[in-house]
Amino acid sequence: MSTPRATVIERFHHAAIRMLRSMRAVDEAGGFSGPRASALSVLVFVGPQSLGDLAAIEGVKPPTMSRLVKAMQAEGLVDARPQDHDQRQIRIAASERGKRALMKARERRLEALQDMLRDASPAEIQAMEKVVALLTRSFERRSQKPEAP
Amino acid sequence: MSTPRATVIERFHHAAIRMLRSMRAVDEAGGFSGPRASALSVLVFVGPQSLGDLAAIEGVKPPTMSRLVKAMQAEGLVDARPQDHDQRQIRIAASERGKRALMKARERRLEALQDMLRDASPAEIQAMEKVVALLTRSFERRSQKPEAP
DNA sequence: CGTTTTATGTTAGCCTTACTAACTATTAGC
DNA sequence: GCTAATAGTTAGTAAGGCTAACATAAAACG
After folding, report:
1. Protein CB footprint (7 Å) on chain C nucleotides
2. Distance, CA of A11 to CA of B133 (rounded, Å)
3. Fewer Cβ atoms within 10 A, N terminus or C terminus of chain A?
4. A17 touches chain B (CB under 8 A)
5. Quick one: pLDDT at residue A144?
6. Which range of residues forms the domain containing residue A93?
7. A110-125 burial string, b = 16+ CB within 10 Å, else e?
């Protein structure tokens, strides 16, 4: 359990925690918080969703998403109305104001990240790219087989 | 704002979020949750701390840490008693049971991470190492100058 | 010294996000 | 058409975060 490989993985995990912790501060300074930014970015970049689907994408249970949507609706960040073909479902979409707010928050976060990593060498940027590819691959593998067959 | 560099950084941020989200599930399945595991690991690997120091290390305010410590104390994970040289401060230390619990949780998480990254190539592991170095460097720079002079 | 200031934790009260359980309403199946 | 299943909501609880207000111990200082 103490191979060099394990050590790297563990240190990477820890570094990721620290990086995201400092980003949280940036996100929250900019008005809306992690879960909201995340759900909104799904609505903006993936498209309108039903509540259940949005909850599944975000990895939370429907009641949690229900409350989140209600709060964002109250702030005018999203619109929600019954689906045409199924009156049980609701169609949640980012409002224009929501889109603008998301873009601004995204920009702020990106600026903070770029500032944090401003002295990264080209080789390090390349290394980040490799790591992103690795992680993306892992996520895809995982989502292909959610449960053992 | 749309340089390749920015794109990589943004995708890295997103990948980190997803990685940690799946790790949260592993942590919580194993008994205690993120903030507890994190605080406890400071006590185990860095050593006993006062409440204020521990709060600062963890990036939370003292009342938050006070409650966390109280809960962990109730579960027998940590010991706390007044400092010798200053009766205002308390000295918080991991108990034997806390150490064991942390080690087990750590092992579980590491196994899950290794499983997630099981098909990483040597080059990718090397890339992770580079990224860890980059992030660590950034954190150190940041902690050296907490506020502008 | 004694008084005032500063430092350290704690308590109380609030918010957000997460959960489960129980409920309503709509759709689908038989 | 009655029953099943499905989609969301409501209610109640817990964890973790915050600020404001407080108690107490130590330090500073006249």
Report:
1. 7-13, 16-22, 25-28
2. 10
3. C
4. yes
5. 57
6. 4-110
7. bebbbebbeebeeebb
